[in-house]
Every structure is written in structure tokens, then in C-alpha cells.
From TrEMBL:
Pfam family, one: PBP_dimer
TM region(s), chain numbering: 39-62
Name under which the protein is recorded: Penicillin-binding protein 2
Origin species: Adlercreutzia wanghongyangiae
Broad class of where this protein is predominantly found: membrane
Residue span(s) of domain Penicillin-binding protein dimerisation: 80-222
Length: 580
């Protein structure tokens, strides 16, 4: 076979190896790989994709969140406390004020020697080192209070120790210079500066101000970086208030109540002194007293003035309401007479006086002087019980007075359509109706103030703005004759009747005593113990003060008239009171 023939066979299509397709430039440039190598490349490619997506997630999707967390880790932020407004008495004497203090806190993570620092803190702040050690050992948190509202000088001594992880915040602390005197009226604040009771609660919005904020970058040791303040909103201090309380008279009233209740042999007593012409309350208290400067020593139930917040059956002090209704109805005059048997019966119930007596004829004046249940019941029945019900509504005797003090009580009387004769009798002498002592004070003030009823209150003004508080008054009777007769009868209760010990030498004291039965939880009334009271005023006084003194849960043979006399005798001297 010659060379030409071999060449021809090799060039014939369809015979021998298949022709190769030309490779693209990229494939040509890459070395050929086997199957295992391709798998490795795929894995690396997937890993690269995962890292790429993670990078996108971190830098795009959650970038802001991580940035905020990083910023938070290098910043310190807290609320700054405003100075709470000062409370002044009517003479400008400070009753409650805020002073500079320092709150001490720790970041336990930064504490290097827990035991040593705990001992150092106890040496300056007092208390047990073990208590501080427990706080400094809380590694799960970066903030624990060591002492809130510490004295500034005390905090400075801690600063001098230069302890790791211990920091300080400027703060304020509430102080009550007079302790328990007026404490129930003033009230107190918690450690966060919020009013909890009394006028601190009533006027919390005015006194509290607005907290500020402080945020700054901090360095390696946690201290704020100079010039690194990022945000600061100044706190807005609260407003001051001036109230009607006279802290000097308040002290006198509290001492008189405390000593009087010891003599009466009870732990529960109360008193209120109010200006009948203005409604300003000069003094108010009830046992036990409360010390807002030392709440740990204050007894449960001491946080309220019970004469404002608690209702009771007033007993014979309410006979003045019935007598006024009788006079206004023109059914009797003070000298009109009436036959008064020793006992009367209505709806199968017997009514008698608190002391045994024979049947007798009495004037309306004598009925009030001797506090006759039978006499006032019959006199009110003859005048018409509807006049009594009208007087209760007109004088707002079972309605809240609107006093600016939290938790005021509200009285109750049965609707007139449900009255039977025995209900009418009972209400006439102060049973079957509930009121607060403050409501009775307002009524007696109306008698002293020529028929004008005022709103009892404490707030007088806001000194910083010059704003003076305004309160409603109401003319509830224009019957000058009935008012004069009522004052005349209340005067003879003191000169000739059961209120003799209430008199103040040289002054025409008017008022009414009370020995009220106490409703029992089992029904009926408790045996052998009573709520005592006296409410009265000096007729025609230049400072028109009306005063109530009450004593609860006491034996029968007791009176509060001597406590009233002690209070009013002091008030006469303090205010140079004269009488027309």
C-alpha cells in the first residue's frame, strides 16, 4: 500500500476518533479537573456565598441594631431628679422641702475586690458589710443601688475611697423639719419623690416638677468622658405651695388631743380647727400621729386625718341640725314649751334620754341644753320630718365637702320616702345617719357665718406664680332670726347645759356636746362605749374659728369639752381674738 493510499484512509470521515470541538478561551485557560476537585470547588463556593450573605446581613440589614448596641455599651444614661416644690404654712414657715442628696450605685462587673469594698462602704455608710457584699456580687447586672439619697457629705467620703465600680448621681431628698407636727396633713413622699399621702399626694402634679435626662459616653473605667455628653434635658423644678395650716396652732392642737385622750382613756381622738368665714383649715389631726421624717416608726392607720376621711354617727352634735330645721320651719321658738315624757315608742322601738328623768315640760332651749333625745324627736315630729330631710340636703350634711385632701369620706342618710317614724326620731338625735366630723364643722361654721357655707380647704396660694386659690361659697339660709336663735341656744348649752367645760373665760362660746352610740358589726349598738364629741365656736369672733374635738371608743362618763377649751383658749391668745 503506497503512501497516498494511507493518507487517504486517515482523512476519510467516520473512521477512527471523533473530531474535538474547539474549547472557549476561559476553559482553555483553566486546567482540566476531575470530579473530586469539582466537588471541593462547589463546597468552597457555597461557603463563600454564606460569608457574603452574612456580611450583607451584618452591614446592611442589622447594622443599625448592632451600632445601637455598641453605642449603649459605651454610654451611661440616667434620669435627673427635679427639686420638689416647698410646702409653707400660712406664715411662711417651711413644712416640707427638698435638699441636695447623692445616690450611690455600683457596677458589680467592675468591682475588683468585693469583700474589701463592702467593708469600706460599711465603714462610711453604716450597716453590715455582708449586705454590701451581696449587692457587689451580682455579676448578672451592671447597676445596683448602694444607697439612695445619701447625704452629700456622706457620698463625698465614699468618693474619697476611690473604689472600683462605685458611681454617684446627683439627687434630692425630701425633708420634714417639724417631724410629726402636721405630718398627717402634709403627707410624705416615697424614695422616688412621689407623693403618697396627704397634701404631698393631693398636689403631687404641682410639687413634683418634670424629671430630666442625661446621657454621656463613658471611658474604660465607666466614668463619663469630659465633653462626651450626647444628650441632656434639664429637670424642671416643681412649684411651691402655701397652705392654711398654722404649724404653731397645729402643735397646740396635737398636744391638747394627746393629753386629753390620755385623760379620757382612749387611743383614738381627733380635732379640726377651721375659719368659718374662709374655709381655711388652721389645724387638723387624729391619733395616732404620723412622722413623715421617720415613717418606719409611724403606726398603721396614722397616715390619714380620720376626722376628714372616716364617717361616724354624730349623735347629739346633730341635734343642732334638727333645732335649726325647727326654727326655720317656725314650728317653735327657743322658749316654746313641749311636754316630754321619759320614754316614747315608735314602730315597736323605745326612745329615751341617755340619763334617767321623770316626765317634764321643756322649752326647745332646755331640750338642747340637756340633750334630750325624746324632746328633740317630738319637736322635730311636730315640725315635720320633711323639714329635717330638707335641712340635711340644704346644708350638704351627707355630701363630701370638696376639701383638698385625699380620701374624704361621704356620709349617708336613708331616702325620705323610706322614713318611718322611728327613723325620723333616730335621725333627729344623730342616729341612723352618717357624716364626717369635717361635715359637722362646716355646718357649725355656717351658723357662725350668718348662713354662708364655705368650702373647707388647705391650699392658699402658689407663691412663685402669685396664683391665689379660689373656693366656692353658698348662702344656705337667709333666716337671720333662726340663725340668731340658734347661736343663742348653743350659747346656753355652754353656760347652762352639758357643755360647761368648753367655756373660755371672757368669750361667748357656743357649741354642742355628743355622746353617740357606736353601731355594732353584729347589729344594734355596742354596750358601754361611745364616740364623744364637741363642736363649737366663739360668737362674733374677729377670727371666726370653729373647732371640733372627738374621742372614739370611750366609757360614757367622759367629755371632750375641756380639750376644746384648751385649744380655743390658746387660739384666742395667738390671734388676739376679740368678740363683738
Amino acid at each position: 500500500m503506497d503512501a497516498r493510499q494511507r493518507s487517504g484512509r486517515q482523512g476519510r470521515p467516520g473512521h477512527g476518533r471523533a473530531p474535538q470541538r474547539p474549547r472557549n478561551p476561559i476553559d482553555a485557560a483553566l486546567p482540566s479537573v476531575g470530579g473530586r476537585a469539582q466537588a471541593v470547588l462547589v463546597i468552597f463556593a457555597l461557603i463563600a456565598v454564606v460569608f457574603f450573605l452574612r456580611l450583607v446581613f451584618l452591614q446592611v440589614i442589622v447594622a443599625d441594631q448592632y451600632s445601637a448596641q455598641a453605642e449603649e455599651s459605651r454610654t451611661i444614661s440616667f434620669t435627673t431628679t427635679p427639686h420638689r416644690g416647698t410646702i409653707y404654712d400660712r406664715n411662711g414657715i417651711v413644712l416640707a422641702t427638698s435638699v441636695d442628696a447623692t445616690t450611690i450605685y455600683a457596677n458589680p462587673v467592675e468591682v475588683t475586690d468585693v469583700a474589701a469594698e463592702a467593708r469600706s462602704l460599711a465603714g462610711v455608710l453604716g450597716g453590715e458589710a455582708a449586705d454590701y457584699e451581696a449587692l457587689l456580687s451580682k455579676q448578672e447586672t451592671s447597676f445596683v443601688y448602694i444607697k439612695r439619697q445619701a447625704e452629700v457629705s456622706e457620698a463625698e467620703r465614699v468618693k474619697d475611697l476611690k473604689l472600683d465600680g462605685i458611681y454617684f448621681i446627683a439627687d434630692t431628698r425630701r425633708e420634714y423639719p417639724h417631724g410629726s407636727i402636721g405630718g398627717q396633713v402634709i403627707g410624705y413622699c416615697n424614695v422616688d419623690g412621689e407623693g403618697i399621702t396627704g397634701l404631698e399626694l393631693q398636689y403631687n402634679d404641682i410639687l413634683s416638677g418634670t424629671p430630666g435626662t442625661y446621657t454621656a459616653e463613658r471611658g474604660e473605667k465607666g466614668f463619663p468622658i469630659p465633653g462626651g455628653v450626647k444628650e441632656e434635658t434639664p429637670a424642671v423644678d416643681g412649684q411651691d405651695i402655701m397652705i392654711s395650716l398654722d404649724i404653731k396652732l397645729q402643735d397646740t392642737v396635737e398636744q391638747a388631743v394627746l393629753e386629753g385622750m390620755e385623760q379620757i382613756e382612749t387611743d383614738e381622738g381627733s380635732a379640726i380647727v377651721m375659719d368659718a368665714s374662709t374655709g381655711e383649715i388652721y389645724a387638723a389631726c387624729s391619733l395616732p400621729f404620723m412622722n413623715p421624717a421617720d415613717m418606719a416608726s409611724s403606726e398603721i392607720g396614722s397616715e390619714h386625718v380620720k376626722a376628714i376621711t372616716q364617717v361616724y354617727e354624730p349623735g347629739s352634735t346633730f341635734k343642732s341640725v334638727s333645732a335649726m330645721a325647727i326654727l326655720e320651719a317656725k314650728a317653735m321658738t327657743p322658749e316654746s314649751t313641749m311636754f316630754c315624757p321619759s320614754t316614747i315608742t315608735a314602730n315597736d322601738y323605745d326612745v329615751s334620754d341617755s340619763h334617767e328623768r321623770d316626765d317634764e315640760v321643756m322649752t326647745l332651749r332646755e331640750i338642747l341644753n340637756h340633750s334630750s333625745n325624746v324632746g328633740i324627736s317630738l319637736a322635730m315630729d311636730n315640725a315635720g320630718f320633711d323639714h329635717l330631710y330638707d335641712a340635711i340636703g340644704r346644708y350638704h350634711l351627707t355630701e363630701r365637702t370638696g376639701v383638698d385632701y385625699p380620701g374624704e369620706g361621704s356620709g349617708h342618710v336613708e331616702e325620705f320616702k323610706n322614713w318611718s317614724k322611728i327613723i325620723g326620731y333616730n335621725v333627729s338625735f344623730g342616729q341612723g345617719i352618717s357624716v364626717t366630723p369635717l361635715q359637722m364643722v362646716r355646718f357649725y361654721g355656717c351658723i357662725a357665718n350668718d348662713g354662708v357655707m364655705v368650702t373647707p380647704h388647705f391650699l392658699i396660694s402658689k407663691p412663685q406664680t402669685g396664683e391665689v386659690a379660689d373656693y366656692a361659697t353658698e348662702v344656705v339660709t337667709e333666716d337671720a332670726e333662726a340663725l340668731a336663735d340658734m347661736r343663742s341656744m348653743l350659747r346656753t348649752v355652754v353656760t347652762d347645759g352639758s357643755g360647761a367645760a368648753a367655756d373660755v373665760e371672757g368669750y361667748p362660746v357656743c357649741g354642742k356636746t355628743s355622746t353617740a352610740e357606736i353601731p355594732s358589726e353584729l347589729g344594734g349598738y355596742k354596750k358601754g362605749i361611745y364616740n364623744l364629741g364637741f363642736c363649737g365656736f366663739i360668737d362674733g369672733a374677729s377670727t371666726n374659728l370653729v373647732c371640733f374635738v372627738g374621742a372614739n371608743e370611750v366609757p360614757y362618763q367622759r367629755k371632750t369639752t375641756q380639750v376644746f377649751s384648751a385649744i380655743m383658749d390658746n387660739a384666742v391668745k395667738q390671734y388676739n381674738i376679740t368678740s363683738s
